[in-house]
Design goal:
Low-confidence stretches: 476-481
Shape: globular
Number of domains: 3
Number of helices: 18
Distance between the termini: 55 Å
Oligomer: single chain
Radius of gyration: 27 Å
Strand content: 15-25%
CATH architecture of the largest domain: 2-Layer Sandwich
CATH class of the largest domain: Alpha Beta
């Protein structure tokens, strides 16, 4: 198959509504089906994912390398094109409209050739690797048409901008290969590589997909919920969710985004490698300061992303294991949680006291009533826990799905916040506020901390609507879906279950409106310091 067919398909898919993307992608995949060896590469080219996410490789090129390669091929002023276009794909398309040199070959680019050469770039390392990568890119651009160059550049930068996500691709594969949609979804949760899944679906091998050593599966997801008792409760500390694979003496540690971070955790890997059994565990990577405090999630991210891994760190990393999902090479997700827990303890031993090194099962306590859970949550919070993980003793592990029987239980906090922006919704006869953006005080500034809407009845929304309309700063924007700024004179009394901070941005978790003060002032709102303390808990 020619690469021009894939480039054309990407162009068409990028220009249609989401509802039509599946049909266009499925049409292309149906054409490819007659060439089985092209199916996996084509799916990866459409997604811009040239290898599974857990493979330890990077393209290792950026806009500058692409610019250098295009400059050797095109007569265009690349600096001007980059000023004109923010997207390197459009820069490449414009640059290749006017080539200064042409390929000796008159043959069109083949999809497999583009796929193989781009993958080859990711394997180049060592001395003069930048020049060698630029040379390979130059060769591809020399043979490419402008439209092909556009998507080659985007693929190299892993920014396709065609609107094809994993769920769209799964639906397209189901339609093109006449394969049950749920079977493809289930297989993808166990092996998150749609190129490989496409090949297996073509060969009717989806039934054989299972948790395998060295291949991370999607983690089961937990949602917050009202407390359910009785149940098994495990403290959740700040850290990064990881999946740890132990095969003989080899240990591999993957993040929830399927990134391999084993290289940054050699000490832990050596200790886990000494355990006799082979297993796959769902765990959290946590860290201890020398003063015995538990590290924040941001500190753990900095720890694994540190540039000089040999540099001594004051952080002592450790793995806290919450679930066992494979043992001795066998998938045990269908076992009840209590049986998986027994096997986890049999291979890792009893939970260790904090701080510890290596790997330990998380502490578990079976509680029978709400009062005992509240007391346990308070006690766990004092030791650094952010929440409790509630497990149903009979529940199975469902990779990549939201559990219906296991939940996150968080402590509740009260917060007084000012409304600073309103997003308006429309009902049949009356326009009502749909969401309220709230902010807290930081000196003289008001810092937005999230959007709230739950807890108000229609009558409450109506009463507040009249007040907010009088406070709107620009009445003309009231119909704008993005909302309208309002003068900060209304305080909402909220109950929240925690907060996240990323960079300088805050997000309150599960806010519920419990009251409103219509004629308030900024002094009536809580200070941002209160939320900072909640974020650090």
């Amino acid at each position: 198959m020619r690469y021009s067919r894939i480039a054309q398909a990407l162009q068409e898919i990028s220009q249609v509504p989401r509802s039509q993307k599946v049909d266009l992608a499925a049409g292309l995949l149906a054409e490819i089906e007659v060439e089985p060896k092209v199916l996996c590469p084509a799916v990866r080219l459409l997604l811009g994912e040239l290898w599974p996410p857990w493979e330890e490789r990077e393209m290792g090129i950026g806009p500058e390398a692409l610019t250098a390669a295009l400059a050797e091929v095109s007569d265009q002023d690349l600096a001007s094109l980059r000023e004109k276009y923010s997207d390197m794909g459009m820069v490449a398309e414009a640059a290749l409209q006017q080539k200064g040199q042409h390929s000796l070959s008159c043959e069109p680019l083949e999809a497999l050739s583009v796929y193989d050469r781009l993958r080859r770039i990711s394997r180049i390392s060592g001395k003069e690797s930048e020049q060698r990568k630029t040379s390979l890119l130059r060769g591809i651009f020399l043979e490419a048409t402008p439209l092909e160059g556009k998507y080659i550049a985007r693929t190299a930068l892993r920014s396709m901008q065609a609107g094809i996500g994993h769920m769209t691709m799964i639906a397209a594969l189901s339609a093109a290969l006449h394969c049950d949609l749920e079977k493809i979804r289930s297989a993808y949760r166990l092996r998150p590589d749609l190129g490989g899944i496409a090949a297996m679906a073509k060969n009717r091998e989806l039934e054989s997909v299972a948790i395998r050593p060295r291949v991370p599966t999607k983690n089961m997801l937990f949602r917050s919920s009202e407390l359910q008792v009785p149940g098994a409760f495990l403290p959740k500390y700040p850290g990064l969710r990881v999946q740890t694979h132990k095969i003989k003496k080899e240990v591999l540690i993957f993040t929830s985004q399927l990134r391999n971070i084993t290289f940054a955790l050699n000490g832990i890997s050596r200790m886990v490698g000494e355990i006799e059994s082979d297993f796959v565990v769902d765990a959290d990577l946590i860290g201890f300061h020398e003063r015995n405090g538990i590290c924040s999630q941001a500190e753990m991210l900095r720890y694994i992303n540190r540039r000089r891994l040999s540099r001594k760190s004051s952080i002592q990393p450790a793995l806290l294991a919450y679930d066992l999902i494979a043992l001795g090479g066998e998938d045990i997700c269908s076992m009840p949680y209590q049986d998986r827990r027994k096997r986890l303890l049999s291979i890792l031993g009893p939970p260790k006291d904090m701080p510890f090194s290596g790997i330990s099962p998380a502490q578990e306590t079976v509680l029978m009533d709400r009062g005992a859970v509240d007391e346990f949550l308070c006690r766990a919070g004092k030791s650094g826990a952010q929440a409790l993980l509630e497990r149903d003793l009979q529940a199975t592990y469902r990779p990549g799905e939201v559990s219906e029987r296991d939940f996150i239980v968080r402590a509740e906090h009260n917060l007084a916040a000012l409304i600073v922006r309103v997003a308006w919704g429309r009902r049949k006869k009356e326009k009502l506020p749909a969401r309220y953006q709230v902010a807290l005080r930081s000196g003289e500034q008001l810092v937005p901390v999230g959007w709230v809407w739950r807890g108000f009845s229609k009558r409450d929304h109506l009463a507040l609507s009249h007040r907010l309309k009088s406070l709107a700063r620009d009445e003309a924007e009231n119909g704008d879906e993005g909302g309208v700024d309002v003068t900060a004179q209304v305080v909402l009394d909220l109950k929240i279950r925690g907060a996240h901070k990323r960079g300088n941005k805050y997000r309150i978790i599960e806010p519920v409106i419990e009251g409103v003060r219509l004629n308030a002032s900024p002094e009536d709102a809580d200070d941002l310091e209160k939320l900072e303390k909640i974020c650090s808990e």
